[in-house]
């Protein structure tokens, strides 16, 4: 009875959330409707996590993590481009702020939470250092190419690339992301499978019977509907968010942080559930895969969109952001190399995440 109710609930809520998106798109919402849309958004997040787990159970790891990461990122990119087209010069740094926030949320917030949950529940959180290290190296390279170098290049004034530099960064990001996906899913797939406490690789299949192909396809469709509803409803309430940010006296970059937090909610919940089941490698696949997709797909799309986007495209990070990124990379390396983590490593990452949130609001 419980599974039957859950199945109905996870089918109905994404459809209702999508209907709310259609009815509220492009309108100024009163406070009561903002609260209602926010409730639909939360329900769509929960439904997205359920359907992502169904799809992941059917296709196995690491493909399941890849499905959710790419789906969320594609819709996140669409949201960024939509806001930049309608926002003019004031959104010139929105892509940078959102992508950097996504990197901090995934590499510190999600990683720290999952390591903490896994280590507290199972004493030590075990994962594969080869696969996780490769993912961290790819994220670091993508972040340096797309977010750090624009601050130091001299072809154009300010933290932005010239047209040639932006084209190179876009092509390099896309090629590097494609290469990583090929390694993760084909050539070295075993590097990204969950491992037991003693270090051996755990079979990617769950003990329960995988869902049928038809069920998985239905869940995939509902996952996409739920993700569209999450991002669309987030955009619907974004004017309220922007007004709240302005009223609170926070900088405009906080809007990008809030957008990234909302969009990454499904992945955060899915990663936390995996960590509680002692599948920390799956959690790390989600976290680093999301950070990688956020950069590797966003930068090429924004580079293409910049042909018709009004105003400059600011990608370079400031000094405070670069310090946080450097600390994240250094801490990530020290966490990944042993292949095992205690609650301390999780706490360190969460402390960096808290510092990011605080400095975003109070630079």
The CATH architecture classification is Up-down Bundle
* Residues in helices, as a percent range: over 70%
- Count, helices: 13
CATH superfamily: NCX, central ion-binding region
Structural shape: globular
Instruction: Give the SSE string.
Output: HHHHEHHHHHHHHEH
**Mean pLDDT over all positions:** 82
How much β-strand is present in the residues?
under 5%
> What name does the CATH topology carry?
A middle domain of Talin 1
Instruction: Tell me the distance between the termini.
Output: 51 Å
CATH C-level label: Mainly Alpha
Largest sheet properties: 2 strands, antiparallel
Strand order of the largest sheet: 1-2
Count of beta strands: 2
Tell me the number of structural domains.
Answer: 1
- The assigned structural class equals mainly alpha
* Unreliable runs: none
| Oligomeric state, counting identical vs distinct chains | single chain
- Rg computed from alpha carbons, rounded to a whole number of angstroms: 20 Å
Subcellular location: Membrane
Pfam families: Na_Ca_ex
Keywords: Membrane, Transmembrane, Transmembrane helix
Protein name: Calcium:proton antiporter
What does this structure look like?
With 363 residues, this protein is mainly α. The protein has one domain (2-361): Up-down Bundle (A middle domain of Talin 1). The chain is 75% helix and 1% strand. It is built from 13 helices and 2 strands; from the N terminus they run ααααβααααααααβα. It has a two-stranded antiparallel sheet. Helix 4 (94-122) runs parallel beside helix 12 and helix 6 (163-187) runs antiparallel to helix 11 (280-305). The protein is globular and about 50 Å long. It starts with a helix and ends with a helix. The relative contact order is 0.22. The mean pLDDT is 82.
């Amino acid at each position: 009875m419980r599974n039957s109710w859950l199945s109905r609930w996870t089918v109905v809520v994404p459809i209702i959330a999508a209907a709310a998106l259609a009815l509220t798109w492009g309108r100024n919402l009163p406070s009561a409707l903002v609260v209602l849309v926010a409730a639909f958004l939360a329900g769509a997040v929960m439904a997205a996590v359920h359907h992502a787990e169904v799809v992941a159970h059917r296709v196995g790891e690491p493909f399941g993590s890849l499905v959710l990461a790419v789906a969320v990122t594609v819709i996140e990119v669409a949201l960024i481009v939509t806001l930049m087209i309608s926002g003019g010069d004031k959104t010139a740094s929105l892509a940078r702020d959102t992508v950097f926030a996504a990197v901090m949320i995934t590499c510190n917030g999600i990683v720290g939470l999952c390591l903490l949950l896994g280590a507290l529940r199972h004493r030590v959180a075990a994962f594969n250092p080869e696969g996780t290290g490769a993912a961290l190296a790819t994220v670091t390279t993508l972040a340096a190419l797309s977010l750090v170098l624009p601050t130091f290049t001299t072809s154009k004034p300010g933290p932005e690339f010239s047209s040639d530099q932006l084209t190179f960064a876009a092509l390099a990001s896309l090629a590097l992301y494609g290469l990583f996906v090929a390694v993760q899913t084909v050539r070295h797939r075993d590097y990204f499978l969950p491992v037991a406490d003693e270090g051996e690789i755990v079979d990617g299949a769950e003990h329960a019977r995988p869902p049928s192909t038809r069920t998985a396809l239905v869940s995939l469709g509902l996952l996409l509907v739920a993700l569209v509803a999450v991002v669309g409803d987030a955009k619907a309430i974004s004017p309220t968010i922007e007004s709240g940010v302005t009223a609170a006296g926070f900088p405009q970059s906080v809007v990008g942080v809030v957008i990234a937090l909302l969009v990454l909610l499904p992945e955060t919940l899915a990663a936390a559930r995996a960590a509680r089941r002692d599948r920390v490698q799956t959690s790390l696949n989600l976290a680093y895969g999301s950070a990688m997709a956020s950069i590797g797909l966003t930068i090429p799309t924004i580079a293409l969109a910049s042909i018709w986007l009004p105003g400059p495209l600011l990608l370079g990070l400031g000094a405070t952001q670069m310090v946080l990124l450097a600390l994240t990379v250094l801490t990530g390396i020290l966490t990944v190399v042993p292949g095992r983590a205690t609650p301390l490593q999780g706490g360190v990452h969460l402390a960096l995440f808290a510092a990011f949130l605080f400095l975003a609001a109070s630079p």
